[in-house]
């Protein structure tokens, strides 16, 4: 028989196990979830690499979120706390713990490292305001009164911190690097900047127009209620609400479908190993050569994948392994080339960028970022550069220039100029280095950069759809040739390779004709802008005079042609 002491020991052990289970469940509970995403944003937990953020993603302490150009993210925490992030912003979730039964032990810390956010307190901030820490750059915001607060804050960290806050509800104080702003109340605005005494808070109506517009955009966002939630269940609901309906087709083998009205802005020229693509609508699939894509598309090359992307204006982006790229925005009209614009964001990994017509005609229309760093192209002619960025902990990056000149605004300070055949490194706890000759760079950096210097198509403008069909046909011919080469005795495989090669040649010829029409349209546009000559035909060219339209941009090496039995057709290329 079991003794009474044995029963007591068994009961005690059971209680201990139950207590441990409860503790473990609480410890494993996640801080919150992504309620909504628009545009391209990334999320990275303390244990993972960065990946595209989507509605329903759960997060915990240590998570880093970044929004690209034109992107917005709304986060909701377990206690009901809400954060809405504006475009081009970075937020780190610090220590967060919440217990409805022990608010005195609950706490929340968030850090806005750049950009703008709207912050709405939840149950922790309402009942225990001292437990809420809000860090913005080198400044600290405190909630002054019980009952919580709803405010917007913006921060530009470099070269010296500039920020402002606008309060919709409650009262806050801001300890800035330049002094303490003791009180900002409802409907008040308070800025801070170097070399300026802290001003008294002003009515929102007295804020600059750009501040009022940015704040209004955040206040207009539809937010969830600020009541506590069960994170897992709320995350499932958010994911289900954001899931594409039946009207949005899944990504097919030849196109990244972003809706009936979407217009393809580029296509996958070449690809190797596993590369995935996610459209703005949330549809995901494996990428393939010839797949077209629209603005809002995100590419993920995985551990071994590589991809060469070509845009309508001729711009090329080459992605290395373990890379995530978001095509945030793109506009190009061959009939109005000066109005073109493009924005791409390398969330993590390595990419090579070769500029196209948009940069040639509208240099300020090209926006390139890598991690939390911004790359500016300084020259007006063609530019060819490679960027590698690792965001697993604190950002580490390298930029290498082949043609042209760039500058890089890093989280640690600016790199004013990197010229051709130079490279520069950046990382935490040090000032960005002076650009150094490529040959003297670290061997690992040289290897990462060399990875991007494969054979490429030219950077001339293209008609996207015909060029995409040609790329798909060339890839299919390469596969047929490889199969034929592996089984030379198979008459059927040899015949299939021959047919595929002929189809690739026809598709390439059709693309060439379409591309020549695009080039003619651009040339005609340029000619139409010239003033008429005083004598002779209006568009005549004087003897010895330079052509009205500049010569084509220097092309990158042209990928080799597909030939029967060659076993691939991607020799010397990223394939």
How far do the termini sit from each other?
Answer: 74 Å
Oligomeric form: single chain
- Structural class, by secondary structure, is alpha+beta
Q: List low-pLDDT spans.
A: 10-28, 245-255, 257-261, 530-575
- CATH domain class name of the domain at 28-242: Mainly Beta
Beta-strand content: 25-35%
Instruction: Determine the number of helices (DSSP H or I, runs of at least 4 residues).
Output: 8
CATH-derived architecture of the domain at 28-242? Sandwich
How many strands, which pairing sense, and closed or not: the largest β-sheet? 17 strands, mixed
The helix content is 10-25%
Q: Enter the CATH topology name of the domain at 28-242.
A: Jelly Rolls
Task: Assign an overall shape.
Answer: globular
Describe the model.
Among the domains are: 28-242, Jelly Rolls, CATH 2.60.120.1440; 266-450, Jelly Rolls (Sandwich). It has 575 residues and is α+β, with helices and mostly antiparallel strands. The termini are far apart. α5 links the parallel β26 and β27 (366-370). It is built from 8 helices and 34 strands. 22% of the residues lie in helices and 33% in strands. α7 (464-486) packs antiparallel against α8 (491-528). Residues 10-28, 245-255, 257-261 and 530-575 have low confidence and may be disordered. It is globular. The protein has a 17-stranded mixed β-sheet that branches. It has a 17-stranded mixed β-sheet that branches.
């Amino acid at each position: 028989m079991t003794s009474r002491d044995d029963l007591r020991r068994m009961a005690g052990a059971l209680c201990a196990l139950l207590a441990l289970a409860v503790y473990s469940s609480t410890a494993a509970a996640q801080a919150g979830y992504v309620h909504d995403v628009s545009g391209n944003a990334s999320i990275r937990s303390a244990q993972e690499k960065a990946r595209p953020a989507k509605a329903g993603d759960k997060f915990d302490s240590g998570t880093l979120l970044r929004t690209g150009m034109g992107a917005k993210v709304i986060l909701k925490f377990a206690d009901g706390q809400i954060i809405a992030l504006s475009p081009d912003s970075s937020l780190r979730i610090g220590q967060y713990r919440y217990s409805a039964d022990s608010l005195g032990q609950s706490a929340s810390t968030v850090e806005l490292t750049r950009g703008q956010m709207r912050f709405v307190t939840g149950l922790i901030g309402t009942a225990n305001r001292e437990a809420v820490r809000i860090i913005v750059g080198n400044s600290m915001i405190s909630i002054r009164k019980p009952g919580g607060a709803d405010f917007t804050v913006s921060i530009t960290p470099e070269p010296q911190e500039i920020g402002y806050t606008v309060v919709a509800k409650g009262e806050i104080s801001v300890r800035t690097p330049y002094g303490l702003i003791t009180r900002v109340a409802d409907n008040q605005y308070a800025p801070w900047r170097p070399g300026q005494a802290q001003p008294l808070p002003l009515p929102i109506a007295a804020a600059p127009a750009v501040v009022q517009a940015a704040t209004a955009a955040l206040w207009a966002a539809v937010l969830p209620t600020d009541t506590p939630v069960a994170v897992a269940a709320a995350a499932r609901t958010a994911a289900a609400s954001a899931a594409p309906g039946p009207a949005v087709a899944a990504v097919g083998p030849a196109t990244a479908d972003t809706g009936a009205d979407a217009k393809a802005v580029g296509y996958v020229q070449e690809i190797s190993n596993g590369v995935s693509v996610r459209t703005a609508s949330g549809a995901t699939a494996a990428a393939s050569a010839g797949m077209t894509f629209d603005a809002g598309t995100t590419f993920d090359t995985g551990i071994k994948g590589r991809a060469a992307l070509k845009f309508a204006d001729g711009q090329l982006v080459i992605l290395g392994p373990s890379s995530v790229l978001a095509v945030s925005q793109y506009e190009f009209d061959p009939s109005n080339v000066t109005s073109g614009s493009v924005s791409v964001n390398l969330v993590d990994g390595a990419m090579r960028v070769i500029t196209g017509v948009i940069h040639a005609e509208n240099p300020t229309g090209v926006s390139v970022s890598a991690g939390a760093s911004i790359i500016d192209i300084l020259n007006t002619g063609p530019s060819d550069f490679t960027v590698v960025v690792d965001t697993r902990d604190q950002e580490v990056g390298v930029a290498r220039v082949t043609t042209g000149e760039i500058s890089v605004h890093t989280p640690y300070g600016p790199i004013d100029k990197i010229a051709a055949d130079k490279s520069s490194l950046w990382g935490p706890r040090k000032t960005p280095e002076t650009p150094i000759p490529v040959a003297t760079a670290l061997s690992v950096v040289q290897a990462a950069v060399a990875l991007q210097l494969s054979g490429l198509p030219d950077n001339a403008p293209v008609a996207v759809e015909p060029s995409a069909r040609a790329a798909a046909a060339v890839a299919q011919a390469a596969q047929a040739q490889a199969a034929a080469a592996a089984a030379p005795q198979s008459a059927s495989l040899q015949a299939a390779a021959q047919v595929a090669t002929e189809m690739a040649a026809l598709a390439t010829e059709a693309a060439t004709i379409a591309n020549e029409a695009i080039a003619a349209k651009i040339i005609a546009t340029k000619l139409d802008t010239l003033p008429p000559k005083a004598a002779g035909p209006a568009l005549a060219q004087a003897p010895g005079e330079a052509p009205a339209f500049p010569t084509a941009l220097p092309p990158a090496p042209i990928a080799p042609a597909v030939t029967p039995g060659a076993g691939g057709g991607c020799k010397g290329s990223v394939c």
